[in-house]
Design brief:
This protein has about 70 residues and is mainly alpha-helical. Helix content is about 75%, strand content about 0%. Helix 2 packs antiparallel against helix 4. It is elongated and about 40 Å long.
Length: about 70
């Protein structure tokens, strides 16, 4: 997991903002896919990939934060 430690925070934050909110209009994909997940309509493979793709930077930030506080 040292590869995660080598990723700069700035890159992850920028990626999380842009991928998390893209496309900006009419509704960000991440919000749309989370809504589909909670409603039980997230069944198509492309939608599952979209959720993973747009949420990956947030997962990496979470992993990086976990490692940072776990190692202390």
């Amino acid at each position: 997991m040292q590869w995660l430690d080598r990723i700069p925070w700035s890159i992850l934050i920028i990626a999380a903002v842009f991928l998390g909110l893209a496309p900006f209009v009419p509704e960000p994909h991440l919000i749309e896919k989370i809504r589909m997940l909670t409603q039980g309509t997230l069944v198509r493979p492309i939608d599952i990939f979209d959720l993973f793709y747009h949420g990956l930077p947030l997962l990496l930030i979470g992993g990086k934060l976990f490692r940072r506080f776990q190692l202390r």
